[in-house]
Design brief:
Elements lengths: L3 H8 L18 H10 L17 H17 L15 H6 L6 H6 L7 H17 L11
Helix pairs in contact: 2-6
Length: 141
């Protein structure tokens, strides 16, 4: 096993392909879209930017799992499928539950000011009224 670990780290894991965008959400305004892309899209869309560090086996497993779960709850790139949990996003932002602290540590652009958090929460609510998420859970997590 001692010899296998360095080999696995040297080889690494392949980076996943993002699924195609089936239907993009219709944003209420450019500000809301910009904030969502900065703070949410890496996990809650099919436009994840996979990084070289995601090739490390343990990191790869964690990130793949986190992205899969996030897309199950809300996926801005699959708005033609179930996204019922999207209605909880504004409250999760205002309560400080999203974006995840662990994510923000390695993605500085996702760190939102208090004013940006309020703007994003209000923008999401307005966007969801304009283009409501479909009911149902897309997958089990």
């Amino acid at each position: 096993m001692r010899r296998l670990v360095p080999l696995l780290l040297a080889i690494g894991c392949g980076l996943p392909d993002n699924p195609p965008v089936s239907r993009e959400i219709r944003w209420i305004d450019a500000e809301t879209e910009d904030l969502a892309r900065r703070a949410c899209y890496d996990c809650h869309s099919n436009e994840t930017e996979w990084k070289g560090s995601h090739r490390w086996p343990v990191v790869n497993s964690i990130v793949r799992s986190d992205v899969r779960r996030a897309r199950c709850h809300m996926n801005f790139s699959a708005w033609d499928g179930p996204n019922e949990d999207a209605w909880e996003a504004p409250e999760a932002l205002l309560d400080g539950e999203m974006p995840l602290r662990m994510y923000v540590r390695s993605h500085e652009e996702a760190r939102l000011t208090d004013a940006e958090i309020v703007a994003l929460a209000e923008g999401l609510e307005a966007t969801f009224r304009l283009d409501p998420p479909l009911p149902g859970e897309p997958c089990d997590d």
